[in-house]
């Protein structure tokens, strides 16, 4: 009898989703008699029984394509959090549709929120395999998520471009990168791009430290500086606030983001000309790099190996260069942030990068 | 006797400056007995007699490099405009230093402001050759400026990346590109990137038209839309305002830019999810494309041909695929904006792009 | 009544074909009641009545894609040349199928051979519009073909990469680029990449001149050199041979190509370490650059303007920055090679490039 | 007293050398009172006492640059192998010059050969730290070498470009990549590029297997195929030969490389049109990717940590995501090839890649 595999992508998109979808599908067609059911637009599609029966040719030529051929959505996840408390209708709807579609397993590609939801469905008795994707690299249990290194390449390219104009104009340039709770993307692209100051949520900074790093460069004859700033970077003062106080504090600053506040301080107190660049959503778009295609291919192929062995309730992970699997219940709800003894922080400090602490 | 050629880069930087500098230098060393004097940081360097005697090896390996090895500055130009009215000290200083450095000619690489300044110096009797560079492509008298096509490539790449994420998320994405008075960059990258709506200063738009273009796409089954918006784009209402009224009007909108106002309208009136991306200064950075290297090389080489023939007071230009020269006095102070009968606007309309008019 | 437009791509593929196909289709759907018939694999598809009825969604998302969604083939063209002499069966078959498909017009995207074939069909009374594509830029009557600047970008990128390794290793590096009869691609990428020697078919070289250019660089303290060589480059001696003598002469050299022969001479007579790189078919692949997307879009949109006005028997062309049309009979069978007074050759010589002549 | 650190780069160049040099230098200037002595052109420079005293500004702006600012050479290594047997003059010369330059340590960046040489110098009592660089990723003791992932990116980009043209033309395209003994580069870029057949030295193939993989694709309705072939790939028959027999066997084939022989077989026995592309030295050139910049920065910074602790005779390595050091004597002379149970081979097989075995 044909195995029926459902597949959906959920949460913010990132490069490599299609490469992983392709690997799941190609491996499935190679190893088993299978019908693949593509669920449209993430969990929303499962709730609404919005799906398409896929054919082998649907997975041709998508290895290099950005985005996701299945569509994705963020909203349902937020609503699902509420569901946990006050009603279970939506989870119920998903269980009903999983059964109505006669799925043997549901493969779910997503980030932290998605893993949490995937675990909810597992608790309801569904067969779930999750694949960790996100440009934030903040999923617990895996050394790397696909999408991350593609985003690092894009962010580094932005810093490289900013570099030449900074140098020509004797300016202090601030580049604000994605990453609210985890600073991986800013840390990696900051070091790769040779940023002079790198500010990430895990290392609260003081404005004084940032200013003195800039002054020191100036005193050493450097005519420009580059700051790579995670959108979630915060001062040591802010780090002591509750989430609520913090949000209120930021709103009072009136600047659209931390980078603008900081630029303001730098120009008013040091007299340097500043510019802020926010590459925004380009960090999640376009073709995946070779690194992410390799990783996504390995993750997708491993999902089928698990399915073959009827091992469900896992997320696929990279651990010490090996492709492994981790129980969803261990991973769900946890965040992997940058440790302060991360070797890249050490290396960054050694080559002279200031982390503002 | 050695010919003494001064060279400076002024105004906002752009890809191709070093390629042009290299072409000037290599052609000069090949054709004449020459000493090249690099003036630091644009006209500011000439005012302050801040310069370096260049050697042939200074021009090696710079063809591909972004920025300018001579440095540049914007400020002096603004101050020079004031000088025109109330005193001539700075222009005088430049004339004095030109003579003190015993220059035979000053080669000036820059945009509109620079051409205006270059013409001021020409009127003082200095031998000037200008080379038109800018990502805005708005210099009168030349079909193209170097830097432009590199910026188009970068902006198109941003739109491409945004495309994949827009499609995956059913979103309306707004990309705000550089260009205050001229829409060349937004027009070219908008068409190249397949933007559904392109808004440029030369074609005032109405919000109603933009909304109905988006609704039409939605009715045709398209789940997402891309808008490419020049930072200087304005509504038909705004187009009737004086500069002063316009600025006041925009300040009252509270949004940091036109794109945010528009995003607000789209999401509140059509209910679409929107995101704004502002690539900012990355549009001026990084290595020049092959196109700009070829153009910059031709412009730089032509400058030396003019100098050989003692033809001064010109800017080099591209006209109907030929490298020609135009009197500075004809070019200075004029702006080349997009004509409404530009064939690319026609082609854009034909393939279904809305210009909001 | 619906207008029936056939469309096919023929000859070697190049970046921008899909962008042009999209522009033809989108403009047609916008301007007229139309049915678009995609002919598969070039003229071969027309001969064999191998086609598909296209739908609007077939043209979505293809702007950036390399290759051609219609497929292409070279072979039939060669056979058609024979047809001219000894029989007309294949041309007849095409006329029959054109009529059987009830086409109002056939839009043909291709290079020199394709234009020749298109003209044959025109002579048979068919309504033909041609669009000039090729990485060689050698189609008579148009300043530029789409595909060309994308190939220049790729070739320049190869030269850039070779540059860093040449410099590090004190080597003479030879890069052999596409172009049998026309040297446009090698000329543009050679100048853009800063090649020290550029050899193109239009400027026969002598080995002595190449060697002395390399020696001169060495004497000036340069530790490496880069040669950009068109595959059709030939010595002054070879230039005097008949096509037959020339081919025999080359076969006797035993080296797989001109670059290897030249590398051999350089290393044996000057003692420099040499390496040959042949990027090959990567020069025709991948996404078109923004430049080519804009050009292909304009060409494709213009085709529909001609069709609207019932103007047939033309190829679309770029002339002095304007999109125009040229009678096929004027263009077919002619080759546009590089003129010796091309301004880029002049500029190249000025910056010190040797053309080996 | 100032610490005197010598630094040299040896063997084939690769992206990331300058990034590593910069990290060594910046970390040294930050942590100690230091004089850095740049040895020119690898071991040759040490033999000939060809060096320059470096200044901090020499290391500015080189993070992104391909090649090596110190120059490199391959030849001396080959000669040194002979030295081991018949005389020690060159090693002696290096010891003498190391002492004459009063070096406290010599940092050596290179591949397998370099590590062997570095170990020879260690045995002579010199303080040596090695950093593993190579596009081949074949250095024993480290999970990754810098330069590798940049080369994978370049090779993958070539395969991507070939892909679009293969598809349009119904062709079998063969891409021959660097790697004589180790297939890492071909394996990674082959999987990343979605090659249908991947041939590496570690997995001897049979022509029959390759042909039947191609036939199977054809029978499944695929109109084209891509082969990624390491230059050192060999048949199962060849794998049984001695090195000498193998070389003789290949010479008799007359084709310039394995790819051409294979293309010949494919076209004559299956009737498919074939094309061979050999990207060659572009695989080692250009700016390092963000991945390699990060790795090179960590390696370079770690070298200074070892020097601070007076730990000499080590090479820096990546092991399970940690930066560690390994005794040179353990690493020298060993080759890290692809294990047959490498997870990427498994994943490749799962998604349908043929390895020809």
Q: How is this structure best described in words?
A:
Four copies of one chain form a homotetramer. With 357 residues, chain A is of the alpha/beta class. The first copy, chain A, folds into two domains: 3-147 and 288-331, 3-Layer(aba) Sandwich (Rossmann fold), CATH 3.40.50; 150-284, Phosphofructokinase domain (Rossmann fold), CATH 3.40.50. The first copy, chain A, is built from 14 helices and eleven strands. Chain A has helices at residues 17-31, 43-47, 75-86, 89-100, 112-123, 148-169, 184-192, 207-219, 236-239, 243-253, 258-270, 290-308, 328-331, 343-350; strands at residues 3-9, 34-39, 51-53, 105-110, 128-132, 172-177, 197-199, 225-230, 274-277, 314-319, 322-327. In chain A, strand 1 (3-9), helix 1 (17-31) and strand 2 form a beta-alpha-beta unit. In chain A, helix 1 packs parallel to helix 12 (290-308) and helix 6 packs across helix 7 (184-192). The termini of chain A are far apart. Mean pLDDT of chain A is 93; it is low at 81-87. Chains A, B, C, D: Pfam families: PFK.
Average the pLDDT over all residues of chain A and give the rounded result: 93
Largest sheet entry of chain A = 7 strands, mixed
What is the C-alpha radius of gyration of chain A, as a whole number of Å?
22 Å
CATH architectural designation of the largest domain in chain A: 3-Layer(aba) Sandwich
Biggest interface pair, residues each?
Answer: B-C, 48 and 48 residues
Order of strands, main sheet of chain A, comes to: 3-2-1-4-5-10-11
**What is the count of β-strands of chain A?**
11
Q: Which CATH class of the largest domain in chain A applies here?
A: Alpha Beta
What is the count of structural domains of chain A?
A: 2
Oligomer: homotetramer
Q: Helical residue percent of chain A?
A: 40-55%
The DSSP helix count of chain A reads: 14
Structural class of chain A: alpha/beta
Strand content of chain A: 15-25%
Which residues of chain A form runs of ≥5 with pLDDT under 50? 81-87
Shape of chain A: elongated
Question: N-to-C SSE series of chain A?
Answer: EHEHEHHEHEHEHEHEHHHEHEEHH
Subunit structure (chains A, B, C, D): Homodimer or homotetramer.
Protein name (chains A, B, C, D): ATP-dependent 6-phosphofructokinase
Domain Phosphofructokinase (chains A, B, C, D): 4-307
Catalytic activity (chains A, B, C, D): beta-D-fructose 6-phosphate + ATP = beta-D-fructose 1,6-bisphosphate + ADP + H(+)
């Amino acid at each position: 009898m044909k195995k029926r595999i459902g597949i959906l992508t959920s949460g913010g998109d990132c490069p490599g989703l299609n490469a992983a979808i392709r690997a799941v599908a190609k491996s499935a067609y190679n190893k088993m008699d299978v019908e693949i059911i593509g669920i449209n637009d993430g969990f929303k599609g499962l709730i609404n029984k919005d799906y398409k029966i896929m054919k082998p040719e649907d997975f041709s030529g998508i290895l290099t394509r950005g985005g996701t051929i299945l569509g994705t959505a963020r909203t349902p996840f937020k609503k699902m959090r509420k569901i946990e408390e006050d009603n279970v209708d939506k989870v119920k709807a998903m269980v009903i549709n999983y059964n109505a579609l006669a799925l043997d397993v549901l493969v779910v590609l997503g980030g932290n929120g998605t893993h949490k939801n995937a675990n909810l469905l597992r608790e309801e008795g569904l067969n779930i395999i999750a694949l960790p994707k996100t440009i934030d690299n903040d999923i617990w249990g895996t050394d790397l998520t696909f999408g991350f290194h593609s985003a690092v390449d894009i962010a580094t390219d932005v810093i490289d471009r900013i570099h030449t104009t900074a140098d020509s104009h004797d300016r202090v340039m601030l580049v604000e990168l994605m990453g609210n709770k985890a600073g991986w993307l800013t840390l990696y692209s900051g070091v790769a791009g040779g940023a002079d100051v790198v500010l990430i949520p895990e290392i609260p900074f003081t404005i004084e430290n940032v200013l003195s790093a800039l002054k020191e460069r100036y005193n050493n004859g450097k005519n420009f500086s580059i700051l790579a700033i995670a959108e979630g970077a915060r001062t040591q003062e802010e780090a002591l606030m509750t989430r609520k106080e913090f949000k209120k504090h930021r709103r009072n600053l009136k600047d659209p983001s931390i980078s603008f506040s900081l630029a303001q301080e730098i120009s008013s107190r040091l007299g340097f000309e500043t510019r802020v660049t926010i590459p925004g959503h380009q960090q999640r778009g376009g073709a995946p790099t070779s690194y992410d295609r390799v990783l996504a291919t390995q993750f997708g192929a491993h999902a089928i190996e698990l399915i073959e062995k009827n091992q469900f309730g896992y997320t696929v992970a990279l651990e010490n260069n090996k492709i492994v699997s981790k129980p969803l219940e261990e991973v769900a709800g946890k965040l992997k942030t940058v440790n302060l003894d991360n070797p890249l922080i050490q290396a960054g400090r050694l080559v002279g990068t200031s982390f503002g602490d």
